[in-house]
Design goal:
This protein is an alpha/beta fold and 460 residues long. The protein has eleven helices and 23 strands. The strands form five sheets. A nine-stranded mixed β-sheet has the order 8-7-9-10-6-11-12-13-14. A seven-stranded mixed β-sheet has the order 17-18-16-15-19-22-23. Strands 2-1-3 form a three-stranded antiparallel β-sheet, with no helix packed on it.
């Protein structure tokens, strides 16, 4: 009898290998390659039967708008594009203990109040029903009309969801604990995660209910399992936050029914996650304007303007390699800003340890933060505070030039709403000369102009 074929699959990235090895050539991880049986295919492939002809449609035509269901949590609805779309599949990932299960339980309870007793189903593969009830009592949700189950068999879950009236929302916590009994591999492997997700997504689209999958993440912060899992779902959400901060950020990195990079801000309290409708005011609540090295950055997160404080501290370094520590920003971009300040502006920074922090636990990714970071570094180096009531934004090139950024009006309106009076902005160029803002605007064309605004001479 012929031996069953097998392949070796990396459980971190999903890459397939012809033989086992200790290290995956694709992602570089160690001890992640596991042997998996290859499913047998039909002897003659597609030639064994004739397929059904597909009905082709023209590009132009009438399509009904996507029907959405509001969950009752405004920050969650904002991130997913205005509400849950019927038949959509969402994937949410985050670090252990960050609050994923708390968030989805609150979403289930809020939606259940509108949809009725059979409207939301919460299926846990990691906790017993009593554990979920304990969390619900702690959050004050014990009376919420949510149906609970503790199961890991996809066959049983699919049979339950396919029987009778479909729910409005089904939550699977987590997809890595689910398994199909016709696969030999263990739960959590690439084959099981891929096949389990495919079966549940297919059922959700056929029956027209929203499916919310909770996923584990790797040590790099990416969702564990095959990369194809993120391609299969309609929306990918990441729940972020620092353990030492009470703020949590729900970020959409993919959304077929709304804008990507949209964020929702929550505050972790004893009563669960509370919405933060005005995060800019909260991020700036503890700010002291007379401290050198602190600058307010007017940024954009999706369609939402957000003001955060960027803090820099320069400390004399002992002989050797100075330290560069960054929290909430790109360390490579910090190295570039330091090089431009030293080379193009003559500011001596090589003998200092540099510490950079985005206050509040937020992570900033847009290049528009370059000018605010540079202002914080210059302020700390020259020991001169940034002028009170000033916001800063702009992108910096390697020549020291300051380049325009998008959505200037939204940034300035948010700053004006919070009481700021001045703004350091990049040149507008061919754009409108006078943005609709009541702030006093100062255009910075080159980084050397920013150094001059802080006095231009080093403080010894």
């Amino acid at each position: 009898m012929a031996k069953a074929a097998a392949r070796y699959v990396c459980q971190s990235c999903g890459a397939s290998h012809p033989r086992w090895s200790g290290r995956c050539d694709a992602c570089g991880e160690w001890n992640t390659i596991v042997e998996e049986a290859v499913a047998e295919s039909a002897p003659k492939g597609l030639s064994a039967g004739r397929g059904r002809k597909i009905d082709l449609q023209p590009m132009e035509g009438e399509s009904a708008p996507a029907e959405r269901r509001h969950s009752g949590i405004a920050e969650f609805d904002r991130v997913v594009g205005g509400g849950l779309v019927k038949g959509s599949a969402l994937l949410i990932g985050g670090d252990p203990g960050i609050g994923k299960s708390t968030l989805v339980l609150q979403v289930a309870a809020a939606l259940g109040r509108f949809a009725g007793a059979a409207g939301t189903i919460y299926i846990s593969g990691e906790e017993a029903i009593e554990q979920v009830r304990l969390r619900a009592r702690r959050l004050g949700l014990s009376q919420a009309p949510v149906l609970l189950a503790a199961a890991t068999s996809v066959r049983d879950i699919a049979s339950t969801l396919d029987a009778g009236q479909p729910p409005e929302l089904a939550i699977i916590d987590s997809i890595q604990t689910m398994y199909l009994d016709n696969l030999d591999s263990a739960p959590g492997t690439v084959a099981q995660v891929r096949a389990s997700a495919a079966e549940l997504i297919r059922l959700a689209k056929r029956r027209g209910f929203s499916l919310l999958l909770v996923g584990h993440v790797t040590k790099e912060g990416m969702i564990a399992g095959p990369r194809v899992l993120e391609h299969m779902v309609d929306t990918v959400l990441y729940f972020e936050g620092e353990r030492g901060h009470q703020f949590r950020i729900l970020r959409a990195v993919k959304n077929r029914f709304g804008p990507a990079n949209e964020i929702g801000v929550f505050e972790m309290t004893d009563a669960g996650l509370m919405e933060v409708p005005n995060p800019s005011a909260l991020f700036l609540a503890e700010r002291h304007s007379e401290v050198s090295g602190a600058t307010v950055f007017a940024g954009m997160e999706g369609s939402r303007p957000l003001l955060v404080e960027i803090q820099a501290l320069l400390s004399p370094s002992p002989p050797g390699t100075p330290r560069r520590a960054v929290v909430g920003w790109d360390s490579s971009r910090l190295a570039m800003i330091l090089a431009v300040l030293e080379t193009r502006c003559g500011l001596a920074l090589g003998g200092y340890d540099v510490y950079l922090n985005v206050a509040g636990g937020l992570r900033v990714g847009e290049p528009a933060a370059d000018l605010a970071v540079a202002a914080a570094l210059i302020s700390s180096r020259l020991a001169r505070p940034t002028p009170a009531g000033t916001v800063v934004f702009g992108e910096i090139g390697l020549g020291g030039e300051v380049r325009p950024v998008g959505q200037i009006d939204q940034r300035l309106k948010e700053a004006e709403k919070l009481g700021f009076t001045d703004a350091l902005i990049p040149p507008l160029g061919g754009r409108r000369k006078n943005p609709a803002s009541g702030l006093r605007l100062a255009s910075i064309a080159h980084l050397s102009e920013l150094v001059e605004r802080f006095g231009g001479k080093e403080s010894h």
